[in-house]
Specification:
The complex is a heterotrimer of chains A (215), B (251) and C (219). Chain B contains eleven helices and eight strands. With 251 residues, chain B is of the alpha+beta class. In chain B, helix 8 (194-208) packs across helix 9 (210-218). The chains are: A mainly alpha (215), B alpha+beta (251), C alpha/beta (219). The A-C interface holds A 38-41, 44, 113-114, 116-124, 127, 131, 134-135, 214-215 and C 12-14, 48, 51, 53, 77, 80-81, 84-87, 91, 93-95, 103-104, 107-108, 133-135, 149-150, 153.
Chain lengths: 215, 251, 219
């Protein structure tokens, strides 16, 4: 395999792994954000815990999950360690607080205004929820993009749960770490540029889609 | 060793950066460090030729070990040579009975592993049972332990992880022999100057001298019950010849 | 339709302060009630309780004599659909004015929601706004559109929060005409305003209620 092919393969794997992780996380983070977007003492407590977890070190989460997935760990029987699936699970957990907290902010104002307006106009609960969600779609989409950006750019989980195995679990960040450890700084910077370009491209694409969808 | 040296020179303080040989030499090339302690003759040779590092001194040696699950599915215990052990792993791998985890990071250990595959006349790259981890020795050993796989390791990392209980499945299955010798050399970085260079040179002399060699001989005894390195001074000529051999064609 | 508050106390979730303190009040079809009082007195909260949006902490909300909050959800929804509350600050959805005005009808599954919405706009003299996007509206236009959206569903009770706030003189006149027309058709109207406005008096106010510190005093 040529170096170009290998870089392409690693890039596609990064996209697939972090994209899947982000979408997976969104399936529970957005509903959770919706629930938390109402005032209440317990909701406030959960929200502040999640806010604190936004910046959790990826290596710490990676280590905790490694202990779970290890042969001697509680979930060892799943044989997830050193597979791309393990990275997906780890990154999905990693970005859950970020997506939830940022989506919650958007949904909070949507619930206060759009949901109440819809109810006042005679919507049932589901209709009101649908309207609030629809109106906050651009904001929620940005939260998801932020989540993806964090997932695709993290190193600790990919390294500890994936193991940076060539042709199997090597992603952009672990490839960068490897290039640095081998002293191949040029390659590291090149891979880094791809990483940044992906994040920017995804973010801009989502913004453009919103524009097309119209005001 | 640095502690003992600093006892003699109160105004000197060393700062150490622990990285693989490949990275260490790269740091030397960028002029970020004044001295390097490395163990990959072939890589060293390239940097010596380019004049990046000078005044090399061999100060210690030990042996790489081939570790694997205690059940030894490839049956490498009692192999005649490291190359023979690798051939057995290859056969078992192709038969779906064994895995091998490679450092895959261009480190001294990785370079040596590749040279043993070459000696064995085999190329495992791309085989499904051959996993290139692209990580440090400790991570690679942990991965091999999890996967019940074989790997090539330096003895000190293996023993220290074993000591901590991190490696429950792995054992040393083959060690010794010329093919597995691991020669440690120290160099001064050419771009370094002034007092820094002076003390770097002095420190390397200290390491290769009688006092330094004494420290090498006993290092690790307390913690692991046996020394991790052998002093180079007594076998210097032999080691130099081996170094040349490793740096050259087969390195 | 008659909505009666019996000793209603209300506090926002997470707050210990009561926004309404033992309120008794009654609103009904064909009558106009004006709620006045200073900012923060509880006018908006009172309107939202009347609109069946906020559930009181204590006390009862009787709709045609039934305790609304102990009814089954289906009955609640059908009653709630006969009362419409319009926010002080217009809350419009992305899309055109016509789509916005059709919203209430769509939520009720009424066939021909768009033509119904157009009819309402025409009746209110706002037809010229139909194709505008929500972003292109002035504050006054947005307020009229949000009132039109409420009127379109033909509510029995219309609750308006500071409806004059963003309107210029001509538009205030227009709104008064619309409300007079609604009253004559038997619609009950409740208007909250933090300062008395002469125009409002011309709707034909039947009763003025003053709210201070969460308590209601009939004048």
């Amino acid at each position: 395999m040529s170096i170009v092919e290998e870089v392409l393969e690693i890039t596609l794997r990064s996209l697939a792994v972090s994209g899947t992780a982000t979408l997976l996380a969104s399936t529970w983070s957005v509903p959770l954000a919706y629930i938390l977007a109402k005032p209440g003492r317990l909701r406030g407590l959960i929200a502040s815990i999640l806010e604190a977890l936004v910046g959790i070190p990826t290596v710490l989460l990676g280590l905790a999950l490694y202990m779970l997935f290890s042969r001697s760990g509680v979930l060892g029987f799943l044989h997830l360690l050193y597979t791309a699936k393990a990275i997906v699970v780890g990154q999905a957990i990693l970005v859950t607080p970020l997506i939830t907290v940022t989506a919650c902010r958007v949904l909070k104002s949507a619930r206060e205004s759009f949901e109440e307006m819809a109810l006042a106009l005679g919507a049932d609960d589901l209709q009101a929820m649908a309207i609030a969600l629809r109106e906050s779609l651009p904001g929620v989409a940005s939260s998801v993009v932020m989540g993806f950006s964090r997932a695709v750019g993290e190193l600790g989980i990919a390294l500890m749960l994936g193991g940076n195995i060539r042709g199997a679990t090597r992603v952009l960040t672990t490839a960068i770490a490897l290039s640095v450890s081998m002293g191949e700084y040029d390659l590291a910077l090149y891979l880094g540029a791809i990483l940044v370009a992906i994040s920017v491209l995804v973010s801009v694409t989502v913004k453009l889609l919103e524009e097309v969808q119209g005001p | 060793m640095a502690e003992r040296f600093e006892e003699k020179h109160h105004h000197v303080t060393f700062e150490f950066i622990a990285v693989g040989t490949g990275r260490a030499l790269k740091l030397a090339e960028r002029g970020d460090v004044c001295a390097v302690f490395v163990h990959a003759p072939r890589l060293e040779e390239a940097y010596v030729e380019r004049g990046v590092i000078v005044s090399g001194r061999i100060f210690a040696y030990n042996y790489f070990v081939i570790v694997g699950p205690s059940s030894d599915p490839a049956g490498i215990r009692g192999s005649e040579s490291a190359a023979e052990a690798f051939r057995r792993i290859y056969r078992a791998g192709e038969g779906g009975r064994a895995l091998f985890v490679s450092r895959g990071d261009n480190s001294g250990t990785h370079v040596r592993e590749l040279s043993i595959w070459r000696l064995a006349g085999l190329d495992p790259q791309g085989r499904p049972w051959y996993k290139e981890a692209g990580q440090g020795m400790a991570e690679t050993l942990v991965m091999a332990d999890e996967m019940m796989a074989y790997t090539l390791s330096d003895i000190s990392t293996f023993l220290s992880l074993k000591e901590k209980g991190r490696l429950t499945n792995l054992e040393v299955l083959y060690s010794g022999g010329e093919e597995l010798i691991n020669i440690y050399s120290a160099y001064v970085v050419e771009s370094c100057g002034g007092a820094e260079r002076m003390y770097a040179e002095e420190f390397i002399e200290f390491a290769a001298g009688p006092e330094g060699q004494e420290i090498v001989a006993s290092y690790g005894e307390e913690e692991f019950g046996r020394p991790l390195f052998s002093p180079a001074a007594s076998r210097l000529q032999e080691l130099k010849a081996l170094w040349e051999k490793l740096a050259g064609a087969q390195g | 339709m008659i909505i009666e508050l019996k000793g209603v106390w209300f506090a926002y979730p997470g707050s210990r302060r009561y926004a309404l303190r033992g309120v008794h009040m009654r609103v009904e079809g064909g009558r106009v009630v004006m709620i006045e009082g200073p900012n923060g007195a509880g006018k908006t909260t009172l309107l939202k309780v009347l609109a069946l949006l906020y559930r009181p902490v204590k006390g009862a909300v009787l709709v045609n004599g039934d305790d609304y909050w102990s009814l089954d959800p289906r009955t609640q929804l059908s009653l709630r659909r006969r009362v419409v509350y319009v926010h002080e600050r217009p809350i419009l959805l992305r899309g055109s004015v016509l789509e916005n005005v059709a919203l209430g009808l769509k939520l009720r599954g009424v066939p021909g929601a768009i033509s119904g919405a157009l009819e309402t706009l025409r009746a209110m003299g706002l037809e010229y706004l139909a194709e505008r996007k929500w972003r292109e509206l002035s504050a006054g236009e947005a307020q009229l559109v949000s009132i039109a959206r409420a009127v379109a569903v033909q509510p029995e009770l219309l609750l308006l929060d500071e409806p004059m706030a963003h309107l210029d003189e001509d538009r205030r006149e227009l709104l008064v005409e619309i409300l007079r027309e609604l009253k004559s058709r038997g619609v009950g109207i409740v208007v909250a305003s933090h300062w008395p406005q002469d125009e409002l008096l011309r709707i034909g106010i039947d009763r003025v209620v003053r709210v201070v510190g969460g308590e209601v005093r009939a004048l």
